[in-house]
Amino acid sequence: HAVPPSVFIRVDPWPNHVSPRRCARYNPGMNIRPFLDKQPVLGERVYVDPAACVIGDVVLGDDVSIWPGTVVRGDVNFIRVGARTNIQDGTIVHVTHEGPFTRPGGLPTLIGEGVTIGHGAVVTPGVTIGDGAVVAAKSVVASDVPPYAIVAGNPARVVRRRFDDETIGRLLAIAWWEWPVDKISRNLDLVRGGDVDALERAG
């Protein structure tokens, strides 16, 4: 299904929902590496496991978690990962530079907010994964994933949508992942339960 680009995360180099901090302010055990003049930028409360690796032009939004064996490599283009996204063990996220077989500007990779990527998945260059999506373990994501879709397989295909289109539209408008952390904490049961009416009323 075609998905309007407006539903995806912002792609400016310094998203305004990220509090930019250099890796020196984080746990020295985190495997955060520069590539040439590009250094990863982490939001608040980000966790990168010491056995994972984040390289180059990568921005991780607030509360992102990157688990053992995962490689997020923004060497020849950029990677953006939205807030509250969980990238599980052994996942590979990559990009491609501009060339005769790519589009102008190359192929950056964009992962939305509140996304879960399962163990051992591969996210290929140029893919956009919409907010709230779930990528099953061992999937190879070679095309864009709509918001709140569940995808699986090689290549990954939509298995089903997590909610109907109306509910997805309401959840995207609520954008709970952009709430202050104290509001998320107060309403965590609602977030987990998917009660859209209650989320719209949440204070």
Question: How does this model look, in words?
Answer:
The chain is an alpha/beta fold and 203 residues long. 14% of the residues lie in helices and 26% in strands. The chain has 4 helices and 16 strands. Strands 1, 2, 4, 6, 8, 9, 11, 12 and 14 form a 9-stranded parallel beta sheet that branches. Strands 3-5-7-10-13-15-16 form a 7-stranded mixed beta sheet, with no helix packed on it. The longest helix is centred in the last third of the chain and has 10 residues, at 165-174. The radius of gyration is 16 Å and the shape is globular. The model is unreliable at 1-24 (pLDDT under 50).
Intertermini distance: 34 Å
Low-confidence stretches: 1-24
Output the structural class: alpha/beta
General shape: globular
- Radius of gyration, in angstroms, nearest whole number: 16 Å
In sequence order, what are the helices and strands, one letter per element? EEEEEEEEEEEEEEEEHHHH
The total beta strand count reads: 16
Q: Estimate the helix proportion, in percent.
A: 10-25%
> Total helix count?
4
The major beta sheet can be summarized as: 9 strands, parallel
Tell me what portion of residues adopts beta-strand conformation.
25-35%
The residue-averaged pLDDT reads 85
Q: What are the key terms here?
A:
alpha/beta, seven-stranded mixed β-sheet, 4 helices, 203 residues, 14% helix
